[in-house]
Amino acid sequence: MAAPSPALLDSLAALLGPKGFTRDCDAMTPWLTDWRGRFHGRAAALIAPATREEVAQAVRLCASGGVPLVPQGGNTSMVGGATPDASGHALILSLRRMNRIRSLDPEANLAVCEAGVVLANLHEAAQAAGRRFPLSLAAKGSATVGGLVSTNAGGTQVLRFGNMRRLVQGIEAVLPDGSLFDGLTALRKDNRGYDLTQLMIGAEGTLGIVTAASLKLVPAIGSRVVAWVGLATPVAALALLRQLEDRMGGAVESFELVPQGALDLVLAHIPGTRPPLARRHEWHALVEAAAPVGAPSPEPALVEALGAGELVEDAVIAASEAQADAFWRLRESIAEAEKQDGPAVKHDISVAVPDMPGFLVEAAAAVERDFPGVRVNAFGHLGDGNIHFNVRAPAGTDAGWIEGAGAEVSHRVYDLVTAAGGSISAEHGIGQMKLGEFARLGGAARLAALRAIKGALDPAGIMNPGKLVPPPPLAENRR
Ligand code: 2HG
Ligand code: ZN
């Protein structure tokens, strides 16, 4: 792939103006490294179009010069999905200036948002209109709609409302040749062949640039109740979730598993945090149940359900919104606390929900036995069968561990996941971090289909190269 010529850079600068084009090192530096500081790249320029027409023209210019583009929103990828390679040939295409909510229609329960709308801003706007966009994650203050779409983001409310695939009604995107696909439809039924919207969701920017999405809204929350629960085992945790669902149905919106070790990390590194329960427990669950405006509060049902049976070792119900937020802060700070603590390898994995408790315990024992000194930190979305099976380096190890012994740990974890019929990427995508493991374990049919789709839509390979789609094996390359 080519570096942009001076003439191409001049054309882009003229098209986008000083707010939309920079080659200044200081301005570009924050966007050349991922959130975790694991991947570092270089770029020939950072472009930030303000409209879909500017995106389309910029893509057309880049396509004519064979110049790679790396789309970027909030730069919160966990897998290096928005970081360019080291060649310095790519342009970062930031969507952050496209941050308008074009419409928010409470009657239709739809919000049309540009790609750069920050998730927390969408939450606020929906709430002001008596609605809710029911997808939430720790990075909500920076993550943008385009990135959420492009990674099929999940988070802490998937249990009830599903991930982005379920919440996106349609998208608008600039395809690799610069043409504009307008799929911002309000149609609930549409059978015109392949579903391009679904194809672009989770494509990690490899098939084009998502410029806007039409997102489904649900009724605003009237009342919520948040509980912190102490438990002995992940088996008990999943059994409790099923009990709560039996008693409370769809009111249970979140059920997050937190081991004592993860809580300890948060308490050690995140200022102002306190343990919710007096005693230590091997495992904890953060539970949230909610009801729409006008419906009875779910609190009595949750209190009763937690009090029944033997599963719960101890539990506390948040007495105020502030306490509920404090419980959530504990959960949402795990990634930050783990980062501050030292090197770790992350494995964002899934297995069938009923298999997860057993997998979790057995895989942790196997990894800790085979790699002495490492510490498994497995937490997250138990009800979705998606756990962040992270493995912390032995105490005192430096960051070099990640690429060395850490890579062997990952290899082992992914083998265990694959043997259990699971996925090596449940939530964060493949990016550049998992490309090698995806090539190894993705399966011939899946990988061939991915490469064929990529080749058909982006034959020059300019869209986010080096992410998601592993190059074909060498033998096929030579043919
Ligand atoms: C979460 O669920 C995020 O908190 C981050 O997906 C997970 O840090 C991680 O591995
Ligand atoms: Zn997660």
Automatic annotation (TrEMBL):
Keywords: FAD, Flavoprotein. GO terms for biological process: respiratory electron transport chain. One of its GO terms (molecular function) is catalytic activity. It comes from the Bacteria. The keyword Transport does not apply. The keyword Flavoprotein applies. Residues 39-220 form the FAD-binding PCMH-type domain. InterPro entries: FAD-bd_oxidored_4_C, FAD-bd_PCMH, FAD-bd_PCMH-like_sf, FAD-bd_PCMH_sub1, FAD-bd_PCMH_sub2, FAD-linked_Oxase-like_C, FAD-oxidored/transferase_4, Oxid_FAD_bind_N. SUPFAM superfamilies: FAD-binding/transporter-associated domain-like, FAD-linked oxidases, C-terminal domain. PROSITE patterns: FAD_PCMH. Belongs to the FAD-binding oxidoreductase/transferase type 4 family. This is FAD-binding oxidoreductase.
